[in-house]
Amino acid sequence: MNFSKDDYKKFADARAKRSPIIKDCIWAFCVGGAICAVAEGIKELYMYFGLPKDDAGTLTSVTLIFLAALCTGIGWFDLLAKRAGAGTLVPITGFANSVVSPAIDSKSEGFILGVGAKIFTVAGPVLLYGTLAGAVYGVIYWIFSFV
């Protein structure tokens, strides 16, 4: 069969499985909230053992990054992300997954041309434009501080 682009789009749209958007949004909200609640529990645990609030918050971020990287490495994060969707991206866990996944995928190409070159393929644009936006907002804030 020879389809034009428009005909193929109509054909594919007619046969595509519809996503239960409301259910998916509720599930993502619940999973994201659960991740944040676990993080809050970890922070409270660190504070219980005597760490100041700022140090406990920093150590909580490090713990979440470690747990997300570990879960990505053993394949659990992908299983959760298939069900929870954007709910796994909520805190720093999604960022950790976006760094670890390309590193694992490109490990067979070597440490320099594989892992080193491709580790930030997903997270790189986030870092670049986040840093750029921070610099632009800083300049705007600095300009308005004179007003």
Write the layout of secondary structure elements.
Elements (H helix, E strand, L loop, with lengths): L4 H11 L5 H28 L4 H21 L2 H9 L7 H14 L5 H8 L4 H22 L3
Helix pairs in contact: 2-3, 3-5, 5-6
How would you describe this protein?
This protein has 147 residues and is mostly helical. It contains 7 helices and no strands. It has helices spanning 5-15, 21-48, 53-73, 76-84, 92-105, 111-118, 123-144. The longest helix is centred in the first third of the chain and has 28 residues, at 21-48. The radius of gyration is 21 Å and the shape is extended. The relative contact order is 0.08. The model has no long low-confidence stretch (mean pLDDT 87).
Task: Write a brief caption for the model.
The chain is mainly α and 147 residues long. The chain has helices at residues 5-15, 21-48, 53-73, 76-84, 92-105, 111-118, 123-144.
Strand content: under 5%
Report the count of strand segments. Answer: 0
The separation of the N and C termini measures 67 Å
Main β-sheet: number of strands, strand sense, barrel status?
none
